Amino acid sequence: MRTFRAATLNIWSRFGPWEERLGAIREGLRTLAPDVIGLQEVLRFPGFDQAELVSQGLGYEIAWGRASENHGFPTGNAILSRWRILRSELIPLPNGGSDEDRSLLYAEIDALDNRMDGQLQLDLYQMVSRLIFVTTGWYLKNDTGSAALDQRIAELQEARKALEPKLTSLLPAFSRERIEERRHGLFKGGAPEKLAEQLAVADVGELIPDIALTARMAEADIVTAAKAFFAVSDAFRIPRVEDAARSITPPDYYDQLALSRATDTIGAARRGIAVAALASHGKAADPVAAWLEAGGERVARIRERLQALTEGGDITVSRLSVASGLMSDLTGI
Length: 333
Fold this sequence. Notes:
Elements: E1 6-10, H1 18-32, E2 36-45, E3 48-49, H2 50-55, E4 61-70, E5 73-81, E6 84-93, E7 102-110, H3 118-142, H4 149-163, H5 167-170, H6 173-188, H7 193-200, H8 202-205, H9 208-218, H10 222-235, H11 238-246, H12 253-281, H13 287-311, H14 317-330
Parallel strand pairs: 1-2
Antiparallel strand pairs: 2-3, 2-5, 4-5, 6-7
Helix pairs in contact: 6-7, 9-10, 9-12, 10-12, 10-13, 12-13, 12-14, 13-14
């Protein structure tokens, strides 16, 4: 059975014979060979990093978080990990009314090696890479704001914070079923349950910037915008179209451009329809249903043609291009 070894040590800042103690600390860690180490009273300032000094030659990754000052120098806690540190978070703790600050350092580590199939690990990395790639591409194509980068990042974080706990409940049945299948597959393959849940909704996470833009354009709260956004997706079977589009391998550069343009147009049309529904029928119980009804026979005919195009055989770039044109026409109603 594989074991996990952890150690913790208060290194007592630079008090006492620091150089001698440093050698003893390294030797002790080399002998114990812990997988993860928690260090307290760790100094870090320009030109001096005690966590780095302790880990030299031992192969650990480092996360550090400030707790207080020690004679004018920043001191805090450190986590040393044999595995890659994915992220860390500093959580201030109450000081009980004293002038002595305390904090907690939290870190997520990637300890999946030898716990799951290598190909599944690569698939997990690919999911994360795609999320970053698609979201970055969306911003390059659609973000025309002049706000500073840190402000835009903060806005995206707020949108994710508001939507992620509710995403699955807001989705159409088809999307929920696909997410559950994906989650079950990842978990069965060896992914930790929480990681499987997070990555199962990664392709839905790609849509959060678009939903946030829909909310701004419609002057609606983000959950209301998300409901309209996904209602449009369901009405026009867009998740099925997106799944089919991902399976297309364009034979040349120009087909790739046509595929990219078609998917971008469908995305813009979905956003436009959601905004129009919220703007014209925002007080209705279901703004999108009200918008569809108001569109009458024209909208009904286009929905039928879209269904025939996207479900009447294998999806192709040409079919997708026609579908995107039909959806784009609807935004002019």
